[in-house]
Every structure is written in C-alpha cells, then in structure tokens.
Amino acid sequence: MNQGFSLVNHIGITVSNLEKSIIFYEALTGKKIANQDQIGGERMAQSQGLKDTLIKYANLQLGNVNIDLLEYVTPQSSRANYSNDQISAMHMCFEVEDLLAAMARLKEIDIEPEGEPIYFEAQDGLKAGFGTGVAYFTDPDGTNLELIAPKGPFTRAK
Q: Is the pLDDT of residue 39 over 80?
C-alpha cells in the first residue's frame, strides 16, 4: 500500500456559473461531463470549515485527473483574482503534443491566450528542457490555465 501522496484524484475549481463553465471545459477538453449533482448541509459545511453549504457540481474525467467544477449556492461565492505571481495562486496545466495546433484549437473555440506561446531557450535561464513550449490563458472566471508541450525534465515519468 502506498503511504505517500503520489496520485492526484481531481482539481476543484469554484465557478460563478456551473452551466457556463461546463460548456467552456467540455469545449476545451473535448470531453463530456461524467456526472452532475449537488451536495450540501451541515456535514459537508463542517468538513470545509463553513456553517452551511449547498454546492452544485459537475465532474469531468480526463485520462490522468478529474476536474470538479463547483458552484457554491450557499454561501454565495465571492470572486478571487489571482495572477500567476501571487502567493497561493495555482494553475492547471494541460499537456499537449503540438502547442501550435493546441493554440489554433483555442482560437477555434474563442479562447484568447494571455500572450504569445514561447519555447524555452538557454536565454530563459534554464539548465534543461529546451524546446518545451508553454502558453497561458484563463477560463470564464479568470482561473489560470496553461498549455505545455514538454521536453526534458518537464516530461512526466511513464
């Protein structure tokens, strides 16, 4: 039995509008949601340090991790704004084989990147991983997202 934390089950993203986010993430991933439901009450609230909660959610299953989209009805969510340089900011990165093809697909579904994609070079200060391509974008609520076409140490062990 593995005693370490070596597998990620899901990434939870709090959204302002579940239906709008389902449309976005289904278009982005090419996958349909696997489950849509709601959960709430005192027990769920207490597990999160809240007094009461009602959460509408949807699960999207990718090959290596699930994405949980969560719309808090109670308590009503407030908007957090994180840029990638802020402490505690997180982002979710999608691995692709061809960054330029992935960028073209983003444009097809009306997603604008934050900037132009780059491919890592020695001038970027790295010791390895040259040729790795990255690009950044956000979901409808401003969640930080990334595309990576990994090389060298950025490639996951199989």
A: yes
How far apart CA 117 and CA 75 sit, in angstroms, is 38
Beta strands in 3-125 (DSSP E): 10-14, 35-40, 54-61, 66-74, 92-95, 118-119
Spell 59-69 as b/e; 16+ CB within 10 A means b.
Answer: ebeeeeeebbb
* pLDDT surpassing 70 at residue 96: yes
- Is 59 a residue whose pLDDT tops 70? yes
C-alpha closest to that of 112 among 135, 134, 96? 135
Q: Is the pLDDT of residue 114 over 90?
A: yes
Q: Which residues pair with 94 in a beta bridge?
A: 147
The residue whose two tokens read 């027990």 is: 43
Residue type, 101: A
Residue 123 φ/ψ, nearest 5 degrees: -65, -15
Reference 139, options 17, 1, 43, 52; nearest CA is 17
